[in-house]
Amino acid sequence: MVEPITASYAEEDEEWTITVAGLGRELTARAPGLIAARDRAEQLIDKLVPDQEERAVVHMLNGSAVDFTAKYMQVRIAGPEAEQAAAPAGEHTGSEGTDDADAGAAEPPATEDGSPQGELSA
User: Fold this and answer.
1) 3-state per-residue secondary structure call for the chain
2) Domains and CATH numbers, the chain
3) Are 40 and 60 in contact (CB under 8 A)?
4) Which residues 6+ apart lie within 8 Å of 11 measured at CB?
5) How far apart are CA 68 and CA 95, in angstroms?
6) pLDDT, tens digit, for every residue of 25-40?
7) Starting at the edge strand that comes first in sequence, how are the strands of the sheet with 25-31 ordered?
8) d(CA 108, CA 122)
9) Phi/psi at 51 (nearest 5 deg)?
C-alpha cells in the first residue's frame, strides 16, 4: 500500500510556501507563484520518495484539495498575470462599496431574444 503524501500551500506576501509531508518527514520551500509552487512541490516529492514509482499526493490549499484544484485551475486557465490580480480563496469579489448611482451606468438587461430592453428587434 502506498502511503499518502500531502503538499500544503500557503500564500504569504506574494510568495507561496509549500510543505510536503509523508513517510515521517517534512520538506518546505518557497516559490513566487502558484504554478511555480506546484512545480517546486514535485521537486520536493522527488526528494522525499526518489525511487517510488507509485505515489499518492494530495495537494491542499487551506486544508482542502478542492480549494487547491479550483485556485490552480483558475491560474492555469487565466495565466500568470491573473494569479497576481486574483483575490485569495474564499474572498468575495462582488460589488461591495457601490451605490445605486453606479448601478445606473450598467447596460439594461437583455430580452429573451438577446436584444437589449428598450430597443426594437427586427
Assistant:
1) CCCEEEEEEEEECCEEEEEEEECCEEEEEEECCHHHHHHHHHHHHHHHCCCCCCCEEEEEECCEHHHHHHHHHHHHHHCHHHHHHCCCCCCCCCCCCCCHHHHCCCCCCECCCCCECCCCCC
2) 4-85 (3.10.20)
3) no
4) 17, 34, 88
5) 25
6) 999 999 999 999 999 9
7) 25-31, 15-22, 4-12, 56-61
8) 19
9) -105, 10
Q: Residue 17's pLDDT is what?
A: 97
Please identify which residue in the block is written with the cell numbers 468575495: 92
Considering the entire predicted model, what is its pTM?
0.64
How distant, in Å, are the alpha carbons of 11, 83, 94, 95, 103 from that of 87? Answer: 11, 8, 11, 14, 23
